[in-house]
Amino acid sequence: MRYLPLVWAAFRRHTTESLLTFLVLTVAFTLFGAMLALRAAYDHAIEVNRMDRLFVTARFCCTGLSIGRRAEIERMPGVRGVGLIDALLGFHQEPSMQLGVWMIDAGTIAAIPELRLTPEDWKLLQATPNGLLFTRSLAALWKVKAGDAFPVKTSNNRREDHAEAWPFTVAGVVNDPATQIDWMPNIYASYDYFEASRSREERGLVQFVVAIDNPDDARSICRQIDTRYANSETPSYCEPLRIGAQNVVDSTITMRQMSLGIGAAGLFMILFLCANSVAESVRERLPEFAVLKTIGFGDRQVATLVVLESVLPAVSGAVLGMALASLLSSFTSRLGEGSGLTLPAASISGGIVALSLGVALLVGAVSALLPLRRLRTMELAPVLALAGL
Amino acid sequence: MSVFRQLLTVSAIGVSTLPQRRGTSFVIVAGVACVVAVLVSMLSIAAGQTRMSLSGGGRDRAIIQPKAVTGESNSNLGQDQISIVLNAPGIARGPEGSPLADPEFQMGIMPPLGSFGDPLEIRGIGPTGIRIRDEFRIEAGRLFRPGVQELLIGVGASKVLGLGIGDKVLMPGGFWPIVGIFSNGGDASEGVFFADARTLLSATKRKGYASVIAKLASPESFDEMHDWIGRNPALALKSERVSDYFLRSGGRQLALLTRATYVIGVIMALGALFGATKIMYAAVRARTREIGTLRAVGFGGVAVAGSVLLEAMLLALIGAALGTLVAWLAFDGRVVYSGGVFRLHVSAPLLALGLAWGAAIALLGGVFPAIRAGRLEAATALRAV
């Protein structure tokens, strides 16, 4: 505490310049924090895709797997349940209003409990065969309520009657899922209705989501499934959902790959400024330090003073920077758009704050190194004489 | 002495003292270099993808697809609709009078058993498809034979996937050999495989094509064809130039990336701006005696202020040039995969943007120190020493 008045006096020496240095530090740590938070948001978006859920589709394009394979996969060791995972892609009203509808059945609801759908929800779909179940958040987004007509126009799943529009009606509003499967829509319809209405040649062809007991077995169970159907007319491709999400991130250029480089560039930028500011301050105040030494301040005490002058603005800048990064990070969810990932709003975790404070301490300490060396080797008499003291 | 000559003289004196202030000068150079290097590097992604979309003959060709689809992967085009489209006005015709248009489709093939990853993209095209791509060249090997299960690989895909002539790809019906490597004027198709459309259709049991690629009689005849397709009640189709289609396909994520780049560029610029202001204030303080002397011998405040701005500008431009050079050396021409294979492009407009960004930082950062320097009175400045 006894050093604080001296540190404050040094800050006040050139107030504008000290404030500007503090602002640079704040900006750099805002960027550093925001980039770390963004990277963490991407990692979180991958992590929420479960390793104990497997996506099974046809290895080669343009067809599905026979629905008869569901029972075969269900009997495999380590498999807990198999749900259907087929989607209608299209638009409502205008081509710009794109959406997808996920076809489910009672088995899907049982196999994927994280969807938080109940047997009562399934009964709703059975009571309204062309019904749609909207999750609460999507019902709010599309502004729909039970009983509304909601036609969906599509061209990837042709109806038997060749109509392009599927005449859906909103059957009810249901829970949001506990865990989002990234690329699957949260508007549900009955697979039975879908199967009865789609073109005859496409019937009975589906994709599966397989729930397994142990996430560590995901790769081996996938291999078992694919090996079983390797020589069939329609070989399968099985992939744990988390690995699929990781592939999505790795296969496109996203801010995730660049975030650390940008954060590092920001820190690199301040390192020189910080080091220069401390060096300049010490150089200008050599007589002051000489006086301090003359009146009994030891090397260690002078070093403490210089390190505090260097570290305190860096740490304060880091603290304010983290607060600003937290504000900035609330906008990051939009960066997931178009990448196939649902990116949550990034947040500044305790780990990020701790890392930033650590980096601030390091930047401050490194900046003080050279000036300290100069002070240690300083000859008192010439300095005092030159200063006229 | 005119103000301009005074400005030049004072600036020359200021620049001559830079070696004595090399530490502080380096801070501005390094700061601006960091900002500009990050900005230009990130924007080279969008520039590369845009160049890829606009290269080749994308303006001379149109893609016709069902209205409801978002991309070729979930598109189905009936034979009846294809027959009508081939008669659309504006489509170029060959010497024998047949339309230069090719029904095509693109599909994904999942990675081999035991591995996970992105699907390989295979495009089924016919003989007319090769003919209408004026830029199409076989770089090595030969063309696939009709009716035979063979593949061509684009130069970009070949580089990224490490596959070449003689390699085999697991496809429906067994392993298909790669018999040739093609280029197509640097457009997006260089990131995929080509196969004979009919052979691919029959192997995959696909029910139909996804789109029609048509060569336009001239780039201007697009509107005529577009209107005709839009007005035809028998068609629920949309048409767009291939270049526009490529731009739109990768556009949404690129737009977000570009927006994020500018946000980051502005934040970093703000940091560099505060830094430059701080350094220039310190420089003015360090040169107080010199400025006082100059004012005493008759140099005006405007010349002194201008010299401070010029010095900031010079240092920032050196930093910006360094930043753009680093970005150019590190990223220009680098082959990347992002929903397609393309090369990053540090274009001339990007280099100019980098320099302008640096100049703007210097201008805004130098203005207050310049005003302070310009207002220094000779007596006050000399007394302060």
What does this protein look like?
The complex is a heterodimer of chains A (389) and B (385). Chain A folds into two domains: 4-47 and 255-386, no CATH class; 53-251, no CATH class. Helix content of chain A is 52%, strand content 15%. Chain A is built from 14 helices and 13 strands. Chain A has helices at residues 4-13, 15-47, 69-74, 106-111, 119-127, 136-142, 191-197, 218-228, 241-251, 255-284, 286-294, 299-329, 350-376, 380-386; strands spanning 53-58, 65-66, 79-84, 86-91, 98-104, 131-135, 152-154, 165-166, 169-174, 187-190, 205-206, 208-212, 236-240. In chain A, strand 4 (86-91) and strand 5 form a beta hairpin. The two termini of chain A are 28 Å apart. Chain B is an alpha+beta fold and 385 residues long. Chain B has two domains: 3-55 and 250-384, no CATH class; 69-235, no CATH class. In chain B, the strands form two sheets. In chain B, strands 1, 2, 3, 4, 5, 6, 7, 8, 9 and 10 form a ten-stranded mixed β-sheet that branches. A two-stranded antiparallel ribbon of chain B has the order 11-12. The longest helix of chain B has 45 residues, at 242-286. The interface between A and B is large, with 63 and 61 residues.
Our count of domains of chain A comes out at: 2
- Report the total helices of chain B: 12
Oligomerization category of the chains in this entry: heterodimer
Shape of chain A: elongated
Count all strands of chain A and give the number: 13
**What's the helix-strand series of chain A?**
HHEEHEEEHHEHEEEEHEEHEHHHHHH
Structural class of chain A: alpha+beta
- Could you tell me the strand content of chain B as a percent range? 15-25%
